[in-house]
């Protein structure tokens, strides 16, 4: 038995979307509904159809969306308004901008540091087999441990390890 998509949702789509876009969108959504109905239950297919209808509606396709005035005018109005507010509250604005810039710079520096630390010795194809040889040098401290451990070794260490 072949089930049809819910008429209420089809009506909502036809009401909201401009007539020149309805046929194409409705056809695609009907195909998706039938695919979902074959692979899932009918209730799941209807819920997915509802989700697809909501996702398919775009403001530029809307029947009642009339944009005779360009968005550029609104952008200039918002920019002028932001500029006026910045000039009216100079101390408050500079504190906010300074805090935002310090936060962004801190984030970038921390991320660069983390990326550097994570990429240490990863240039080698066998990076998981790289080991560090520590060299104990110096005196023993009051707890009985060696106080000087270095990540270097004597030149004879290489041939001896081979």
Polypeptide structure, described:
The chain has a two-stranded antiparallel sheet with strand order 1-2. The chain has helices at 7-16, 19-39, 42-56, 71-88, 90-118, 157-161; strands spanning 135-136, 149-150. It is mostly helical and 162 residues long. It contains 6 helices and 2 strands.
Topology:
Elements: H1 7-16, H2 19-39, H3 42-56, H4 71-88, H5 90-118, E1 135-136, E2 149-150, H6 157-161
Antiparallel strand pairs: 1-2
Helix pairs in contact: 2-3, 4-5
Give a concise summary:
With 162 residues, this protein is mainly alpha-helical.
Secondary-structure content class = mainly alpha
Reported for the largest beta sheet, the result is: 2 strands, antiparallel
Q: Secondary-structure element order, as H and E? A: HHHHHEEH
| Order of strands, widest sheet | 1-2
Helix count, DSSP H or I runs of 4 or more residues: 6
Mean of residue pLDDT? 81
Distance between the termini: 74 Å
Helix percent reads 55-70%
Supply Rg. Answer: 33 Å
Which band does the percent of strand residues land in?
A: under 5%
Q: Low-confidence spans: pLDDT under 50, at least 5 residues?
A: none
User: Given the C-alpha coordinates, what overall shape results?
Assistant: flat
Number of strands: 2
